[in-house]
């Protein structure tokens, strides 16, 4: 690990100003990903700006009924918060599936958004990698690619985004609040993340001198149900081979609203807009779910070793939505009782 300076930000504007003064400075939250990258030589900041003491630790319901989560809220506190568990079980379950309890105690909500890929070529500084060193090549296309992207990839990069939390936030239409030298702006989560294109080194659209201060999640429909399911090589502490975050609203056996986000298949959380559009107004049954996912995955471009993800994702989403239909029926019966 290279030597670096360390400082503690006293205010959001102070953190932003420090980033503007040093082009090689980086923000430090829980450090559960960044410190590992520094040890591997993948990240080499000149200065770490600790933002964990900023007043960004609150979770609150705001006037329009949406939930506002401070960027410094730990993953553990987020997962067990009563409003999150009641209104947004998909988010609670996603966070709890993401890491060990010790890591969740350290990791911050804002920092979780900025996780870097676990592609083995990115993590190994002795190997070429366009994401780590633009223009050096992408050996993953012909090399170890079992766990890599089948959607939205490019010739420059086939890496996948590792966050479970971000997949749930995508299904919930979350908004990301960022603060920079020009003040505050709000990004839809689909606009926050980006696909690799010919600039795979850029995971998101946040400027280097901006920091995330909060995440906002709209209030869900009272009749909606949601969940998160993850397929991985071992039961605990493993990144997703594929995952799904789903929010479903069913009335009289018909899909009235649906959100589907996929993890482990793309450079960013993949919102399945094609499948969602196909499902609206259709019967809430497994056959409809499978047809919709066939349309969604029609554009998939699997690599040599990951074509299995196409049937895997289809089965995963179909089964998850079937379970949500059953959960919706149970909830409706309970509301009528």
Strand arrangement across the biggest beta sheet: 4-5-8-6-7
User: What kind of sheet is the major sheet?
Assistant: 5 strands, antiparallel
Which regions contain 5 or more consecutive residues with pLDDT less than 50? none
Instruction: Name the beta content range.
Output: 15-25%
What is the percent of helical residues?
25-40%
Write the layout of secondary structure elements.
Elements: E1 5-8, H1 12-21, E2 25-28, H2 34-40, E3 47-50, E4 59-61, E5 67-70, H3 75-80, H4 82-87, H5 89-96, H6 101-106, H7 109-113, H8 120-123, H9 164-171, E6 175-180, E7 183-188, H10 189-192, E8 211-217, E9 225-231, E10 242-251, E11 254-263, E12 270-271, H11 273-279, H12 286-296, H13 309-336
Parallel strand pairs: 1-3, 2-3
Antiparallel strand pairs: 4-5, 5-8, 6-7, 6-8, 9-10, 10-11, 11-12
Overview of the molecule:
It is a single chain. The chain has 337 residues and is of the alpha+beta class. Helix 5 packs antiparallel against helix 9, helix 11 packs antiparallel against helix 12 (286-296) and helix 12 (286-296) crosses helix 13. The longest helix is centred in the C-terminal third of the chain and has 28 residues, at 309-336. The model has no long low-confidence stretch (mean pLDDT 96). The chain is built from 13 helices and 12 strands. It has a 5-stranded antiparallel β-sheet.
Task: Put the structure in a nutshell.
The chain is an alpha+beta fold.
Structural key phrases:
13 helices; 337 residues; 5-stranded antiparallel β-sheet; alpha+beta
């Amino acid at each position: 690990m290279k030597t670096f300076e360390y400082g503690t930000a006293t205010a959001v504007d102070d953190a932003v100003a420090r980033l503007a003064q040093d082009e090689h400075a980086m923000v430090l939250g829980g450090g559960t990903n960044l410190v590992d990258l520094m040890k591997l030589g993948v990240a080499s900041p000149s200065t770490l700006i600790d933002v964990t003491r900023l007043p960004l630790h609150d979770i609150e319901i705001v006037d329009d009924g949406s939930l506002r989560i401070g960027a410094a809220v730990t993953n553990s506190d987020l997962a067990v918060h009563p409003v999150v568990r009641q209104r947004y079980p998909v988010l609670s379950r996603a966070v709890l599936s993401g890491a060990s309890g010790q890591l969740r105690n350290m990791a911050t909500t804002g920092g979780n958004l900025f996780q870097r890929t676990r592609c083995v070529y990115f993590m190994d500084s002795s190997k070429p990698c366009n994401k780590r060193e633009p223009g050096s090549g992408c050996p993953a296309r012909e090399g170890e690619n079992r766990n890599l992207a089948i959607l939205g990839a490019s010739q420059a990069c086939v890496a996948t985004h590792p966050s479970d939390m971000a997949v749930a936030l995508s299904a919930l239409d979350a908004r990301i609040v960022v603060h920079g030298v020009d003040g505050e702006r709000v990004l839809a989560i689909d606009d926050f993340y980006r696909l690799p294109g010919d600039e795979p080194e850029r995971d998101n659209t946040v400027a280097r001198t901006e920091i995330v201060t909060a995440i906002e999640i709209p209030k869900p429909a009272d009749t909606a149900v949601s969940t998160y399911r993850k397929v991985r090589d071992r039961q605990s502490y493993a990144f997703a081979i594929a995952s799904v975050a789903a929010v479903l609203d069913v009335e009289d056996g018909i899909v009235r609203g649906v959100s589907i986000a996929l993890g482990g298949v793309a450079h960013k959380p993949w919102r399945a807009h094609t499948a969602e559009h196909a499902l609206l107004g259709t019967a809430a049954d497994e056959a409809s779910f499978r047809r919709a996912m066939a349309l969604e995955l029609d554009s998939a471009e699997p690599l040599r070793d990951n074509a299995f993800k196409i049937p895997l994702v289809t089965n995963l989403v179909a089964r998850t939505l079937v379970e949500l239909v059953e959960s919706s029926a149970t909830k409706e019966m309970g509301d009528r009782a």
